[in-house]
Amino acid sequence: MTTLEIMGQNAKQASRVLMNAGAKKDAALYAIADALRANAQQIIAANDIDIENGKAAGLTESLLDRLRLSEERIEGMADGVTQVAAQNDPIGKVLEGRTLKNGLQIEKITVPMGVIGIIFEARPNVTSDAAALCLKAGSAVILRGGKEAINSNKAIAAVMRDAIEQAGLPRDCVALIEDTSRQSATELMQLTDYLDVLIPRGGAGLIKSVVNNAKVPVIETGVGNCHVYVDASADVKMATDIVFNAKTSRPSVCNAIETVVIHKDIAEAVLPSIKAALDTKNVEIRGCERTKAILGDSVIDATEDDYAREFLDYILAIKVVDSIDDALDHIAKYSTGHSECIVTSDYESANRFTAGVDSAAVYVNASTRFTDGGEFGLGAEIGISTQKLHARGPMGLNELTSSKFIIKGNGQIR
Amino acid sequence: MTTLEIMGQNAKQASRVLMNAGAKKDAALYAIADALRANAQQIIAANDIDIENGKAAGLTESLLDRLRLSEERIEGMADGVTQVAAQNDPIGKVLEGRTLKNGLQIEKITVPMGVIGIIFEARPNVTSDAAALCLKAGSAVILRGGKEAINSNKAIAAVMRDAIEQAGLPRDCVALIEDTSRQSATELMQLTDYLDVLIPRGGAGLIKSVVNNAKVPVIETGVGNCHVYVDASADVKMATDIVFNAKTSRPSVCNAIETVVIHKDIAEAVLPSIKAALDTKNVEIRGCERTKAILGDSVIDATEDDYAREFLDYILAIKVVDSIDDALDHIAKYSTGHSECIVTSDYESANRFTAGVDSAAVYVNASTRFTDGGEFGLGAEIGISTQKLHARGPMGLNELTSSKFIIKGNGQIR
Q: Which of A135, A235, B257, B342 gives 20 to 30 Å between its CA and that of A285?
């Protein structure tokens, strides 16, 4: 057996204990939070090595910042774990049930997934965030982080595994793959005998690689080519505020918008207002012919590729359309199915948009930036699913569960 | 673009219409049922060709029987479609909702999957059964049946497509891949741009091939290595009746059992009774040493492979164990996660079994043969999911849906 197969087997064994661990899961989570705080210096020392290696490898300052841990950030990680412990147990909930005519009593209840794999990139805090959610949801987790954070991740995982064991659960409830080669990622994606689901957390490249190589079930997360459509009936100030907020409050995240689609009848009124707001943040505008006709030649020509891209930057594509149908067609063609918004004062337009857009979150008159487990009231999230299977939108504890039927009889045969 | 890519694009277009088709879906289903009846002779003529080809290719009589259509069977197919039409629309249901502190009104509603792929084997009735469920659930469907039934499937699909068009929906709501080469199946498994989910319906070989080759999300169905565990406290007659029913009422289906695990304290009392019942159907018993010690040398030695196999035949493996824990370990090791049953009169044993067995359906004192959408009161099923993602157990209309969040505001920004 390979190292990873042994890890998978151990995780599967641990998951059988976790399946019915009840309040022991919370005890383990509080123990993890305490241990993260108690071992902060040791984790920071490991992180220092990653930072030094990162500098030597020429990582950008923004990547180094994502990578860097401090006492404050470790306190934040511990806090996050505590908050997950305080949530309701998602396991053992009766989802539905009835008594059949033959007397069989049937119930559908939530159960753990089993073993969850998480592949992620540079941020070491994902190690504790993801492990806490999986543990609370009754599943063992196999983590595979990026090579940039390997020393930090190893230190954090070791602290967590010790804490879990001290709380009376198997330390293999949480495991970290220490081999950060591409090969170890591919092997994890194909660990069908042990892995019940794989969740990649990262950029479009990672997600694509997982979709292409995985044999285990995958939940795709996070790629967001999000749109705001400004309807003919929109309030100009509201449209401007929403576009400005959705583009500039945090351009690097998946629920930020990349394209604004504007009805031709309001384009002359709203485009200058949007441009004036975006100019305060030096947002580059890439527009269609009609956008340029209104805003002038400072606007760059938008290409097909611009409408298809997730800029994750201070860049916005704009397209003026003839009708809400054309807006729906544009969104159907280019959206990644994450979050889209209509700004409108028209009842029918609002209804046509919410019915016609096939995305995880569809907004009327509100910023797409709200697509987030915490904002939605679902608690901490493991990611935002942009596929249609299993879960769609922010995935909290409930979305990390499966279900089973329990059927009680007194000798019924068929 | 390849033929299949064009088919995918057309299905995607059709799915956008289906997304909000409401009662038109039912009109199309009733039109399909009428058209199947009206064109029964034409379908039977096409089926005759398949039967002749099948005979020439040396198909077994049982395969030929699965393949054969008659007026009665076509009437059954039409009836099935009508029953699906009569079910409640699974689309547009509000699953949850609340008003957030910032005034945003958030709802999670059911929406169609989009485009569903179905890969299936010999039975031509699957063509109309699966298409009806997908259509009612608001999704376009691309069907890829086995080569043995290709003429029947083409005739059925043509009839359905015409009926759908006459009912005012795009004929591409239902499409059949006419190329039955292995390559067309592989291409369908990798049609990530157009396919939202792929459901294989067939034997273990097909399922394995799909899991190994698919890049689109897959729901695994149907492989059932099911167990009955006879607890020390079991009623001997009830245990015998359940084992007899679960093994012999229809051995070829996935919810039939393959292994009986027996507590050592009841083995001497229950084994002769089980054997006497099974002997009336000439069931071959493959047992462990302790089984042979009680039942004698007519029992064949059970191998590791016997415990792992889905016989789908009049063959039963038996294992005597020391405790319920050993039974749980045996089931965890060999089960495919379909259906398992405990026969017991002990409260704690019942609870330990239902908590400790990680399968789609866990029974106390009832035959595993009840694992079926119709029996569970869920309506017609597209298959029985044995994986943990999205749906587990019988998949009816509700399990063929996805969801989205609709968020209504009045200018909220974050």
A: A235
Please judge whether B365 and A409 are an interchain contact, meaning their C-beta atoms are less than 8 angstroms apart: yes
DSSP conformation letters of B155-214: HHHHHHHHHHHHTTS-GGGEEE----SHHHHHHHHT-TTT-SEEEEES-HHHHHHHHHH-
Residue B347 in tokens: 């409260």
Distance of CA A310 to the CA centre of its chain: 15
Report d(CA B149, CA A96) in Å as an integer. Answer: 39
Q: Which two tokens stand for residue A165?
A: 């064991």
A-chain residues near B409 (CB < 8 A): 363-366
* Listed residue (B384, B370, B7, B373) closest to B207, CA to CA: B384
**pLDDT at residue A205 in the model:** 87
What domains sit in chain B, N to C, each tagged with a CATH number? 3-221+382-408 (3.40.605.10), 226-370 (3.40.309.10)
The yes-or-no verdict on residue A222 having pLDDT over 90 is: no
Per-residue pLDDT at B256 exceeds 90? yes
d(CA A199, CA A215): 13
CA distance A131 to chain B (A): 19
- State the complex-level ipTM: 0.95
Q: Please state, in angstroms and rounded to a whole number, the distance separating the CA atoms of residues B112 and B22.
A: 11
Distance between first and last Cα of chain A: 43
pLDDT tens digits, B151-166: 999 999 999 999 999 9
Judge: B390–A392 Cβ closer than 8 Å, yes or no.
no
Distance of CA A19 to the CA centre of its chain: 24
* Among the ranges given (A324-328, B50-54, B377-381), the one the predictor scored with the smallest mean pLDDT: B377-381
Q: Which stretches does DSSP call E strand in A239-345?
A: 257-263, 284-287, 300-301, 315-321, 339-343
Q: Which pLDDT value is given to residue B297? A: 86
CB contact at 8 A, A394 and A370:
no
* pLDDT band, very low/low/confident/very high, at B10 (cuts 50, 70, 90): very high
Please report which confidence band the pLDDT of residue B223 belongs to, taking 50, 70 and 90 as the band edges. confident
Report d(CA B22, CA A249) in Å as an integer. 39
- Chain A and chain B share a number of CB contacts under 8 A equal to 207
Average pLDDT over residues B374-383: 92
Cα(B222)–Cα(B207) distance, integer angstroms = 9
CA separation for the pair B206, B118 (Å, rounded): 12
Mean pLDDT of B266-273: 98
Structure tokens at A63: 């990547």
Nearest to B196 by CA among B225, B169, B224, B217: B217
Closest CA to B366 of B226, B238, B231: B238
Whether residue A40 has pLDDT greater than 80 = yes
Cβ-defined contact of A389 to B393 (cutoff 8 Å): no
